[in-house]
Amino acid sequence: MLSRRAALMVGAGLAAAPMLVRTAQAETAPMVADAAPVDLSSLPRIRRELVAPPFVHEHEQVAPGGPRVVEFTMDIHEKEIQVADDAWLQAMTFNGSVPGPMMVVHQGDYVELTLRNPPANMLQHNIDFHASTGALGGGALTLINPGEQTVLRFKATRAGCFTYHCAPGGPMIPWHVTSGMSGTIMVLPREGLKDQHGQPIAYDRVIYIGENDFYIPRDENGAFKRYADASEGYEDTVNVMNKLIPSHVVFNGAVGALTGDNALTAKVGERVLFVHNQANRDTRPHLIGGHGDLVWEAGKFDNVPDVDLETWFIRGGSSGAALYKFLQPGLYAYVNHNLIEAVNLGATAHIKVEGEWNNDLMEQVMAPTPYTGA
């Protein structure tokens, strides 16, 4: 049974939805009903269990055979998360994490997602896959109320890293996205990745970075406000959002989510694929002390990768990928190179790299000593 506030918020979603989702649903319904069914019974099926970022579920880099139907299940959770020591957010999440988990398939596979909106939630939700074709990226076919679930299947026809996000209609769209509802699906070429010369190249691990801009309101004394649920803070949050000045810009849901005790790890000699998603704003990833050996800046693997980039650009509403082979041990900072956002607002991750130091690449010729100049 929905509370009065929850019912009002669902009503607000319904009122907003016709501009984008409800109209598309109405127009799509007869097309779906009249379309000839597709028989995929001959294709093998595989179920993947999603894992929380920055990690990625088990997958093959080279497809082991022909196309498959890859099954995923994702629950939507509305819950409070701590963004910083003094800031909390009534978040909306795919599978309980910000960003939502990464899905990995191969080009030509079918993605079959069971999307569930538990009864305890207050709001309508759906999912828009930038990797898909038709019906607002699936948004017109997946709009569900609390206590409902749906199954969407689409063919992964294009290789690359793509954003997915919630898009329930009208003003609900930016609110849901900036409350945490975005993630990445990676569609690998069937033969795996290739370098700038068209030669096969593999990665040893994936690091999945989801960058979010949050807009947490402050009270009259300048302290961040805290709300009992998402709907209670809606008006205040929209007023902050419309000024386009985020209170926080973070990696993986919180300031420090990937630093300190939460720092990521790697080893000298390992090739690490950094996959970076930003569903709302442009960003400029940079690995301090390293480079982008190969960078698919727009995230699309059929494009020839750029080589040796110092900083790359991820357009808002997209995911990009960069491959780097670590050559030196130490602590690396992976940042949004708008350094105000990196240092002051939280968009920083750390990678601790183990291995032997190579003085040929970098050497401290003289340690700091007293100044001897005039």
From TrEMBL:
Its cofactor is Cu(+); Cu(2+); FAD. GO terms for cellular component: periplasmic space. Binds 1 Cu(+) ion. Cu cation binds at H125, H130, H165, C166, H176, M181, H337. Pfam families: Cu-oxidase, Cu-oxidase_3. Its main location: periplasm. PROSITE patterns: TAT. Pathway: Nitrogen metabolism; nitrate reduction (denitrification); dinitrogen from nitrate: step 2/4. Its EC number is 1.7.2.1. InterPro entries: Cu-oxidase-like_N (IPR011707), Cu-oxidase_2nd (IPR001117), Cupredoxin (IPR008972), NO2-reductase_Cu (IPR001287), TAT_signal (IPR006311). Residues 1-26 form the signal peptide. It catalyses: nitric oxide + Fe(III)-[cytochrome c] + H2O = Fe(II)-[cytochrome c] + nitrite + 2 H(+). GO terms for molecular function: copper ion binding; nitrite reductase (NO-forming) activity. It is found in: Periplasm. Keywords: Copper, FAD, Flavoprotein, Metal-binding, Nitrate assimilation, Oxidoreductase, Periplasm, Repeat, Signal. Residues 78-191, 207-357 form the Plastocyanin-like domain. GO terms for biological process: denitrification pathway; nitrate assimilation. Belongs to the multicopper oxidase family. Homotrimer. This is Copper-containing nitrite reductase. It comes from Rubellimicrobium mesophilum DSM 19309.
